[in-house]
Amino acid sequence: MMLAALNAFAQERGLADDPLYEHRPVDFLIRVSAKGKFQGLESTQDERGKGVSMLIPRIPQRAVNIAAGFLADNSKYVLGYEEAPAPRTGKAGKGAVRFEAFLKLVREAVSELNVPELRAVELFLASDASREQALAERAKEEWTGSEMLAFVVGDSLEPVHLLPEVRDWWEKRGAEEAAQGRMGLCLVTGKTGVLAETHPKLKNVPEAQRAGAALVSFNARAFESQGFEQGDNAPISRQAALGYVLALNDLLRKSEDRRYRQGIQVGDDSVLVFWTNSTAKEECALLSWLDPSEVDLRRYLEAPFRGLEPSALDTRRFYSVTLAGNSGRVAVRDWFQTSVGEVKQNLRRYFADLRLGAGPAEKPTPVWRLLKAVEAPSGRGLSPDVSTRMLGAALRGQPFPRQLLSAALDRLQLPPSDDKFEREQLRLRVALIKATLIRLPRSGTASLEVSVSLDKTNSSQPYVLGRLFAVLERLQGAAQGDINATIRDRYFGAASRSPMTVFPRLLQLSVHHVSKAESERKGSGKRLERIKGEVMALLDSKVFPRIFFLEEQGLFAVGYYHQREDLFAKHAPSESMSSDDEPSDDTE
Prior knowledge:
By secondary structure, the chain is of the alpha+beta class. It folds into four domains: 13-176, no CATH class; 181-252, no CATH class; 263-443, no CATH class; 461-576, no CATH class. 43% of the residues lie in helices and 12% in strands. The protein has helices at residues 2-12, 75-78, 94-112, 116-126, 128-135, 164-179, 238-252, 280-290, 294-302, 340-354, 367-373, 384-396, 402-412, 420-439, 461-480, 487-497, 503-520, 524-536, 550-568, 573-576, and strands spanning 21-26, 28-32, 38-43, 52-57, 72-74, 148-153, 183-185, 192-194, 263-266, 270-276, 317-326, 329-339. Strands 3-2-6-5 form a four-stranded mixed β-sheet. A four-stranded antiparallel β-sheet has the order 9-10-11-12. Strands 1-4 form a two-stranded antiparallel ribbon. A hairpin with a 2-residue loop joins strand 11 (317-326) and strand 12 (329-339). Helix 1 packs across helix 7, helix 13 (402-412) crosses helix 19 (550-568) and helix 15 runs antiparallel to helix 16 (487-497). The longest helix is centred in the C-terminal third of the chain and has 20 residues, at 420-439. It is elongated.
C-alpha cells in the first residue's frame, strides 16, 4: 500500500515521466572546439555556489560500483579527477577506471551516430593534455570530485547530451535495456512488467550512507527465502521501483529554507515525510504549521492560520511515512493514511492542546524545538520510538506517549535560569505536559482537568498543590531576593512526587517569609499571604497526599506554571489587591 501510494504520487506529479532523464544542478560546462580542443570551463554557479538545474541523462545507481553517466557526470568520471594519486601497484586508480567507463559510453554512441559534436567530445576525452588543461582551469584545492559537468561544442548554447539525434539514440538504447530482464507480476501495480533485480537508493535519510541507502533490498542470504535471490523475493517492476524512489527522494531533497523539502526531522535518526493527492499548496500549508520555518513564522504574523481553513480538497488522501537510516538500509518506523481534512482538524487540536496562557495564541512551535526542550541535559535526545509516536499522535489526533510526560517532568526538576531562553524552555515543557494530560482521557485514563490558563475553581489536589508551591516560591523571593538555591531548586521534585514529606516544612518557612516580606517590601507579603489562603482553602484536608503518580505530577506542574505566570503578570489594582492592601511592586 505504501509503495503503491508513493508510485501514484510520482506519476501524478510527473516525477517518473522520463525514466531516462532527470533534472540535476550542473556546475560547469566544458566548451570544446569542433576538433575537440579545450576552449574553456564555464561556471553556471550562482552566488551561493549552486549550479543551474539542467535535464541530463539519469545518473545510474552506484555505491562502490563503477557506473558512468552519459555525457554528463561528476569530475571523477568526466575528467578522471582523484583527490589522492593512484597507488603505484601497476593498476589503474579508481579515477582512471571511472574515466574509462565514461569514455566507453561516449564511444559507443560515436560508433552508431554521425554527430560532429559527439565526435568532438570523444576527441577531447581521448587527449590527456586537454583533460589536464580543463583541470588546470581551477586551483587544485577547489576541485572536490562532486562537480557536475556537461559539454558544449563551438559557439552552441545547447549541451551535447540534449541534441535531438543524441537523445533519440539514448532513448532507443534505454528501451532495449528495459526490455531485457525477467518478466513477472508487480506487487505494487498488479501489472506484468520487467522486474527490478535491485532498487534505486534513497538520498538524504538521517544516519544512512551519504551515497544513498535502499528501502527494499536483499543483499544477504538472511533476507532471502524459498530459494529466491535479490528482487525476486519481492517482485516489483522497474517502473514501480523507480517511481517510489523518485517520490521519496523528491520529498527528502533539500530546499532553500529546509533540510527536507517536505519532511520533518524526528529525533536524531528519523524523518517523517508526507504527501497528498490534493495539491502542492495544501501540502505546503500543512508543513508550514507542523514544522514552521522562520519564513513561515513571519508569514504567520501577517495571516494567522492561513492554509488551515476548510477547503473542497479536505476529502483527498493524506499519506505519511517515517524513515530511519541504518548504514546501507532504510527502515520504516511508521506509516499511515487518512484524509487531508482529518489532518487539518488534528493540527488545530494539537495547537489548542499546546496553548498555554491567557494571551493570544502563540506562534506555531516546530516539533523539533518541543522535543529539544525535554531531552536529557547531556544533549541525548528522546528515543526514536518516543519522538516518532509523538509526531504520529499529533497527525492522528491520538494520545501522546507517557514517556514524553516523564521526560518533561524530569527536565522541570533542574534549576531554572532567569534568562528569556530558560523561561521559554519552561513554557514548552509545561505545554507538552498539558497536551499529554489532555489526551490521556481519550485513551481510557481517568479524566484530568487541564485549562489553558489559571483556573481558580479547579479543586484537583495536584493542581492546587502546584499552585501553592508557586505561591510559596514567590513568598521566598519577596522575602530573600536573589539567593543561590530556592525552594524550587531543592524541593520541586519531592513536592510533586510526595507532598506529605515536603509541604509541612515549606508552610512553616512561609510564616517567616511573610513577615520578612512585609518588612522588606510593604504590601507584598500581605498580598501573597492572602493568595496562599485562597489556594489552601481548596485543599480537601490538612493531611497532604502521600504520593502522586505520573499524571498527577504533570497536573502539579501545570498548576505551578499557571500560578507562577499569574503572579508575574501585571494585575490591575482591582484584581491584584483588596481595598486595604498597599500597592505592590511585586511584578515583572
